[in-house]
Design brief:
This protein is mostly beta strands. Helices cover 3% and strands 46% of the residues. It has one helix and nine strands; from the N terminus they run ββββαβββββ. 28% of the residues are buried.
Length: 138
């Protein structure tokens, strides 16, 4: 299992991790599919997680989710999100009890191609330490 703080944008489905759902946004239609974005976290970081189709109806805040073969990449809206993708799978493994942090938010980091390896990305700067989609209530 990879901690969320170690996520790096990539084109392949290889993210195996576990997190708690903190917040869930409104469901929208993208073509013929339902989509909604959520804020998820583990004990190391937070990230925006894209839900598709029936996932939007069944995943709720406080659910603990295990993601297998997920992908961390840019969405159609050019937002950096974690998602199951076509080959990934999400599974509810618990609820309510999980240690988490809300910062850093891995979706709020500006990534650039690595000069030494064009297939990799490196952190260039932090856009915001928190989610701008789900701002903290302080």
């Amino acid at each position: 299992m990879i901690p969320l703080k170690d996520l790096v944008p990539a084109a392949q489905n290889n993210v195996n991790t576990q997190f708690i759902v903190l917040e869930k946004g409104m469901t929208t239609m993208e073509g013929q599919n339902k989509a909604c974005q959520s804020l998820v976290a583990d004990e190391t970081a937070a990230v925006h997680f894209q839900l598709w189709g029936a996932e939007c109806d069944v995943v709720e805040p406080s659910d603990i989710i295990r993601l297998t073969n997920g992908i961390f990449s840019y969405s159609r809206n050019n937002n950096l999100v974690l998602r199951a993708g076509k080959r990934g799978k999400i599974e509810k493994v618990g609820e309510f009890k999980m240690v988490f942090v809300e910062t850093p938010n891995m979706s709020e980091i500006h990534w650039v191609p690595d000069n030494t390896n064009s297939n990799k990305y490196v952190k260039e700067s932090v856009v915001s330490p928190y989610s701008r989609i789900f701002p903290p209530i302080h």
